[in-house]
Write a structure and sequence with these properties.
The strands form 3 sheets. A 4-stranded mixed β-sheet has the order 5-6-7-8, with no helix packed on it. By secondary structure, it is α/β, with parallel strands linked by helices. It is about 25% helix and about 25% strand. It contains 4 helices and 9 strands; from the N terminus they run E-H-E-E-E-H-H-E-E-E-E-E-H. Strand 2 and strand 3 form a beta hairpin. The radius of gyration is 26 Å and the shape is flat.
Length: about 170
């Protein structure tokens, strides 16, 4: 007899999100912005939160004054994200019939497998420290994985029990 696994279907996911929304709404009343940089107010008392610095403070910082204290309106968030994206090294993939004598950094080289049915199987290589490294294959073996027929949808009662157990 096959094992029976539980899965979260779309109805269960909606119910889970509703349960979490209820729990989070209740928790919001207990925690509000603190009155000093790097604090949150818990039941009316400021508590320092290590690592949050100005993120936990309702006024955020003087640098966003142009947006009336709103980091999004001031452009501070846009500037941060734009700067972070600019620092990313771009990665690409190339399908080749054979590996060149030397490769480029940040390129995944895909070499077609001779035994691949329909030409869909590739070996994946990176050129690292002046040498080729086989890092994997695009072939997928799903044997041993759970089959849909072995699963049943989690019930709303089970979801409520899990949320209540985790939340308490």
């Amino acid at each position: 007899m096959a094992a029976n696994y539980t899965r979260l279907d779309s109805n269960g996911l909606l119910f889970l999100l509703q349960q979490l929304k209820t729990k989070i709404s209740a928790a919001k009343t207990a925690v509000t912005s603190g009155s000093a940089n790097g604090t949150v107010s818990v039941d009316g008392s400021d508590v320092a939160v290590k690592g949050l610095k100005s993120a936990a403070y309702k006024d955020v910082s003087a640098s966003v004054a142009s947006g009336n204290g709103d980091p999004v309106a001031s452009g501070a968030v846009y500037s941060f994200v734009t700067s972070a994206i600019a620092g990313i090294e771009h990665f690409s993939a190339q399908i080749v019939s054979e590996l060149p004598s030397a490769g480029k950094s940040n390129v995944l080289y895909l070499v077609a497998k001779a035994s691949a049915a329909g030409g869909n199987g590739y070996d994946e290589y990176l050129y690292i420290s002046n040498a080729w490294e086989l890092i994997g294959s695009t072939d997928i073996d799903l044997s041993g994985y759970v089959q849909a027929s072995e699963m049943h949808a989690i019930t709303n009662t089970e979801i409520t029990n899990i949320v209540d157990q985790v939340w308490s």
